[in-house]
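Can you please make up a whole protein chain along with its backbone structure tokens because I've never seen that pairing?
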Amino acid sequence: MAIILLVLGLSAFFYWGNKKQIWFCDEIYTYESANGFEQEWPAYRLDEWMTGEDVKDFLAADSDSLSLNSVTVRLYNDHVPLYFWLFRFVSFFFFKGSSSIWIGLSINLVFYLAILLLGYGVFLYLTRSPLLSGAVMFLTHVSNRLVLEQITTLRMYSMLLLAELLLLLAGLWILREVDGSKTRPGVFFYLFAVSVTGFLTHYDFWIFYAATSTLFCMWLLLRAFKHKGKFWAAREFRYVLAWGGNFVCSLLATIWVFPYCRWNLNRGKGQMALQSVFVLSVQKIQNIIWGYERLAGSIFGELVPAPCALLLLFGGIIGGAVILCRKKEKKKLSGLILVVLTAQLYQLVVCFTLPDAREERYLWGSFTIMMLCMAWGIFLILKELFLKIQNGKIRRKVQYLVSVTLVVGILAGELMIINGGSGIAYLFHPEKDVSVLEEHSEIPWIVYGPTIGVYSYYDWTIPKKLCFLSPDNTEADAGAFGKLEEDRFILYTHEDYLPNALDFFGETTGHGYVAEPLTRSTNLEVYLVEKE
């Protein structure tokens, strides 16, 4: 069953990966952070005619050295570096001189397959059914929009999800170890490796780590208090001390690998978030409400009312917890409660400290964890209901009918949510028609405006002739435009600057120009301009 799941996962990954277009600014910054240190941004080379290959060179690894330290330095006052090191490594050794989308997708594929196998193994342990475990992972990770968003975005979110899942497993492993007769160090070596990896993946992992360690250690301390008069000698207390020491070692190791993290957290968005911790406002309450709306929408789609979706989500989890409580399966019950509380605490903290914009992608991991907990809760509920049917033959028929109905219904719902790919964030921009742009690759392209954003950079790998002009209409701008020999060209600009651009072109050549809207490239309009 695991092999079938992997085949289905690979098929889904390559299907959606081949539809991927790069338009999200942070994805361009991924290339810039990993490979862009080799040369300056092409847009800085004003009034110089170049080709799309020059833009590709900026996005690609071309130098003779791996230069991971150059990536590290470039990330000063920015992200932690592990994903960008991997991006540089894959670019350098497997995609030398290429700006392929598959640099990032191949990295995501490794983490995605690891997540599939990890989830399958966990559900196999919980359900003892390969078929059911495969079905759960197929519905929640192969045909699911929420996960497809994470694996098709050329950033570290699939890597972050894996790190969060592995950290939760470390906490659950510690809960299991604490009931043993002796302390085994293996769990803490594992916790150290996961912690350092996560700390170097994304600063939001630091928040997730804080939520996880706080809740799990509080649980252990509560258990330690049950040892009357032996609190300080309790195994639970010793495990809390060991976790604390492990955190210190992990933090020191992270600082040793990436010293900039010592002050990165107090700059930019990190500084804004930290400063907002002690500020309570209506906006923060609205952000928290928005977080739950997106939790519902990400899992069930926007067509399902958020209250109904949240009722189903938390109802499934609570129902499963009640069944575990009745069966006195305390370890599984405590594990489920702690995992759900961790995801919820993380979500609340992130929403409460959102710096300047509501960014759903920071919550993708916690949403996925909540979805998995709901899936297990619903499994427990259905299993309990099936057991109430005394007749074995009838029970098997009902199980089959309900299972098929659920799978078909959920799959159909997910296909509606995905909506041919338009429901997957950052897969492609609905307003941008890349095929139209490719049809005009043979004529010159001009980018004109005061702000040359990074959203359209991957577009600019298409043309054979490309020039960036400033909005100041300088002599250098006029000289560059004067070299244009063709009677028509593609123009990228903000709509408000179109009249200025056309006037400038006319004054430079003495001819009139008309512009026809062609498509849109996120924050820029694209026109086909021709001489009158």
About this structure: The first strand starts at residue 445 and ends at 448. The radius of gyration is 27 Å. The mean pLDDT is 92.
